[in-house]
Design goal:
The chain is of the alpha+beta class. It contains four helices and nine strands.
């Protein structure tokens, strides 16, 4: 009898040792009537295929393995626009910031082009904007991963009001009070997370080109960060930098499509 995955299952990424959690297929109401206009209209979204998602944002230790393995020299990992950007700037590593480089801190200073290549190197991909929000909100359409009320507590979320001006370590057992329904940690705060999607108005449609377009279009960021306030930590909040943008609060987590069984 074939194995059936279920909520709570985990797997380990072979290249980095990162833990991934299982996110089953399902439906939810994407967007919000209580945020910025780009979160409207609220619309039903069906996630047809289940996926694996990193338990936490990618760490410096994990990303360093990509760099050491020559990820910045492997053309096949990069999009055409990303490779052109890398060559033009002679980019061979992420951008470092003082106080942000401990092994278990989230990797920051990475553009969308870089995280796309990193995910490909791992044999995965970036989550779509819809998948990310589904993983953060779940079938109950939570406002925050843990529930519908903000909790100003370091055991739940790292944001501008409590961060002390830096990212905080991530890992299993850290900030479990702020866990999403699927078990993922730090989906609100600490670092923004790049998604695959080109930033476009709602309703979200995976077949309208936003998931296949390459180039310099703005890309989605989700989740807020240590540098931003509590409003940006809502699971429905959207941001949209250019794909070459790097910063001390931009990170990522990788997804892998789960096999259909």
């Amino acid at each position: 009898m074939p194995h059936t995955y279920q909520l709570g299952d985990r797997r380990t990424d072979e290249k980095t040792g990162a833990i991934m959690v299982y996110v089953p297929a399902g439906k939810f109401m994407m967007g919000s009537d209580n945020g910025d206009s780009d979160e409207r209209p609220v619309h039903e979204q069906f996630i047809a295929q289940s996926l694996w998602l990193d338990l936490t944002p990618v760490t410096n230790a994990a990303y360093a393995k990509f760099v050491a393995d020559g990820g910045y020299r492997q053309r096949e990992l990069w999009t055409a626009a990303g490779w052109a950007w890398r060559e033009k700037g002679s980019v061979i590593a992420p951008q470092n910031y003082d106080g942000f480089t401990a092994p278990n801190q989230p990797r920051v200073g990475i553009s969308w082009y870089e995280v796309w290549a990193f995910a490909a190197w791992r044999g995965g991909r970036l989550p779509t904007e819809a998948e990310w929000e589904w993983a953060a909100r779940g079938p109950e359409n939570r406002v925050y991963p843990w529930g519908n009320s903000f909790v100003d507590d370091l055991e739940y979320v790292i944001y501008h009001g409590n961060s002390g001006g830096k990212t905080h370590p991530v890992g299993e057992g850290i900030r479990i009070k702020g866990a999403a329904w699927c078990g993922a940690l730090d989906m609100s705060g600490n670092v923004w997370e790049w998604v695959s999607s080109v930033y476009e108005p709602y309703p979200y449609r995976a077949d309208d080109g936003r998931e296949t377009r390459d180039g310099t279009d703005s890309r989605g960021l989700r989740g807020g960060s240590w540098y931003y306030d509590r409003g940006d930590a809502r699971a429905a909040f959207r941001s949209r930098p250019d794909p070459d943008f790097r910063g001390f609060n931009l990170g990522v987590r990788v997804a892998v499509s789960a096999p259909v069984r």
